[in-house]
Amino acid sequence: MAVEKMSIAKALNESLRKALETDPKVLIMGEDVGKLGGVFRITDGLQKDFGEERVIDTPLAESGIVGTAIGLALRGYRPVVEIQFDGFVFPAYDQIVTQLAKMHARALGKIKLPVVVRIPYGGAIGAVEHHSESPEALFAHVPGLKVVSPSNAADAYWMLQQAILSDDPVIFFEPKRRYWDKGEVDTDAIPGELHKSRVLRSGTDLTLAAYGPMVKVCLEAAAAAAEEGKSVEVLDLRSMSPIDFDGIQASVEKTRRLVVVHEAPVFLGTGSEIAARITERCFYHLEAPVLRVGGFHAPYPPARLEDEYLPGLDRVLDAVDRSLAY
Description:
It holds the Pfam family Transket_pyr. There is one protein chain. The N and C termini lie far apart (47 Å). The radius of gyration is 19 Å and the shape is globular. By secondary structure, the protein is of the alpha/beta class. The chain has helices at 8-22, 46-50, 62-74, 93-100, 103-106, 136-140, 153-165, 214-226, 245-255, 270-281, 306-309, 313-324, and strands at residues 3-7, 26-30, 55-57, 78-82, 116-121, 146-148, 170-175, 182-186, 198-201, 206-210, 232-236, 239-241, 258-265, 291-295. It is built from 12 helices and 14 strands. It has a 7-stranded mixed sheet, with helices on both faces. β6, α7 (153-165) and β7 (170-175) form a beta-alpha-beta unit. The longest helix is centred in the N-terminal third of the chain and has 15 residues, at 8-22.
């Protein structure tokens, strides 16, 4: 077993390196991904080792980057596109929604677009405007796109591999506040299914479901709740489209309570769909309404205020207490 402790950033770098080594049709494109190695150094050293024709520094033009990737995919390549920051993706939203997501259906299945769009997302890094968005629900709402987010180094490595191997377009959200969190990665492992949720901590009283950056907060909340005698299960959703409703249902049928947590605004967020579906599926099991914890329905604030905006330990524990009080 090739087990190594590495950060999420390093795991993503190693995953991209493995993909480039394995398949000559894999290309990496984006702003500053080459010589600089990306603003978060996720692509560090890849252009040096694989050349400028496979790790391509692009102009500052997100629509052009994704549009070019679509053309390359039509010619048999497997482009991996980096959007430098979450808030920069919107100039490319038209290309993603009207072309990338629709081409397979438009061609009656004859055309496939194996494009991965990597997006560092979320807050808590003290950044300026347009650098701390959580737009995952906008993409999960669009048929034809897969939308995933790892929360740890092992998933970062393997989920990116699986995304690149997918013949369908994948929007790959990377929790930038967790880039330097470390964990063990077994590069010889057999990964689980890309869109399956995973129980990270077992419990019997309540389920906390989260993905990406908020999984760590939920694990901390479960540990804090345990000190008060509350048994909280933590479910890493891993995928926002498709969502593993069977996995959530299995957990909720055991614990009978569910709190869904994400950084994005609660209003019409991923948690809204989960709350509605689980209420339909588990109505006779639930002992409390499904609760949601997330950001406020307001533009992301200046860095000095982001601690007030982002859901933290106290807000998650407050939801746990409210659920258990029913």
